[in-house]
Amino acid sequence: MALPLTTDQPDRTVAPSERAIARNFLLARMGSLLAFFPLGVWTVNHLWNQLAAFAGPRTWEQSVTAHSSPATAALTFTVVIVPLLWHVGWGMVRLGKTRTSTVRNFSNLRYWLQRASAVGLLAFLGAHLWLAWIQPRFVLGRPEPFADIAREMHHHTPTLIVYVLGILAISYHLANGLWSFATMGWGIAVSKSAQAWFERLALVVFVILLAIGWASIYALYKAGA
Fold first, then answer.
1. Angle between helix 192-223 and 41-49 (nearest 10)
2. Taking the mean position of all CA atoms in its chain, how far away is CA 222?
3. Contact in structure between 146 and 60 (CB atoms under 8 Å)
4. Alpha-carbon distances of 12 from 6, 17, 22, 56, 84, rounded to whole Å
5. Is 22 buried (19+), middle (13-18) or exposed (0-12) by CB count in 10 A?
């Protein structure tokens, strides 16, 4: 008598190679989705909040570093750090599988720039998380003061350069990631005209994010004088 099948039994009629393809497909979709939401949405909001530097120290600290309760801090950790770690791990696997190509066109250039920006962004985020979040909150026991980052931005040239390049990497990675999400990631834009439209949209997003980020850096730089 045959044993009844249960939902937790693998389908033996599917070849292992096909199951691996399906698993990689789902992991890729999960990595793409987490990069877009909530991580990408939160990053855009975080960049926007940095513009509060134009309004002064108190407004910036309320917008950027203040948490109304431990619950909001825990929620931020869950919404940001967990998807970030997933995306970094997924991205490192993809980076290890980066293929070389002799084709010289815009798509190939964009492919390599996305991976170069990922490496630079990983280094930037590591330094940023340590200096702006981990060290102030868990070592010094307080949020990062506005005066500290403004002073570093104005008087420490390496910090200024790192942030300028970090914003460039963030803007490109998010903008190009939006195009990848809509085209290769989830197949929202399939036709050539739709892909060209998303390409123009990604360029607009890149310019806007770059303008917001660099404007915030300028405000912090001026405040640190």
1. 30
2. 27
3. yes
4. 13, 12, 14, 64, 35
5. exposed
CA 10 to chain centre: 35
Give the C-alpha distances (Å, rounded to integers) separating 102 from 1, 105, 106, 156.
59, 10, 13, 41
- Using only the alpha carbons of the chain, give its radius of gyration: 21
Rounded CA separation 202/171 (Å): 10
List per-block mean pLDDT (blocks of 10 residues) for the chain, which spans 225 residues.
Answer: 45 56 66 76 93 96 83 78 82 71 67 87 91 90 94 96 96 90 80 90 96 98 94
Hey, is 193 helix, strand or coil? helix
pTM: 0.81
